Amino acid sequence: MVKRFFFLTVLLAVTAAAKAQIGDYRNEFAVGFNGGYVFSNIGFTPTVPQSQHTGLTGGLTLRYTSEKYFNSICAVVAEVNYTQLGWKEDIKTPDDEPVINTVTGLAESYQRDMTYLQIPVFARLGWGRERRGLQFFFQAGPQLGIFLNEKTKKNFEYSDINLSSRTSSIIAQDTMSVEHKVDYGIAAGLGLEFSIPHAGHLLLEGRYYYGLGDIYGNSKQDYFARSNISNIVIKMTYLFDLVKSKNTKIK
Description:
Number of domains: 1
Largest sheet: 8 strands, antiparallel, barrel
Helix content: under 10%
Structural class: mainly beta
Mean pLDDT: 90
CATH topology: Porin
Strand content: over 45%
Distance between the termini: 44 Å
Strand order of the largest sheet: 1-3-4-5-6-7-8-9
Number of helices: 1
Radius of gyration: 22 Å
Oligomer: single chain
Shape: elongated
CATH class: Mainly Beta
């Protein structure tokens, strides 16, 4: 069911461009680059207490604008991004205090960093100015992620873990490598675009991604029933036009 929903979303995003003849025709293609900050975690079942893992994201952006339908500017956007994801465990006592390791005397900490190549494809609707001024936009669509590598940051040895003081005794994830190398899910974002004639387009966006796949196996024999990625992205994008419509009505 999840896979059917995912592929249906892909189909909707791709076919958005095919309706270009319905409204006021556009034929505009812009390319550029994007960069930003990512706040991520993993939806483990059973639950693993976490705080937000932070990382960077950046890459290439492509946009094809196909039409203006009533007041909505319709486009398809694709990106190829190098993204730092992962999880950071919130290791606390029942009194909400840091757990102190009995050997090192330090507050126990654990963080997993995972690097992905992410490829989102969005159907985009914008309202406002196209060539000069401000535009508000919403975009949504499927996203594919390809796992590249991972590394662990911890300040304890497993033989010295102060497990009896923790609110959660679940530590299986700490020694498990990513099993599923391909991630997929749905992303959606809201943003503002400021356009300057002959200079390009500057965009600020907030985006949320929810993974439909898992990084670990989820069968009855596996430890985790769920281990999906979710993240919030704050990013800026700069685009410059390669192809522009010859339409004097466009403002």
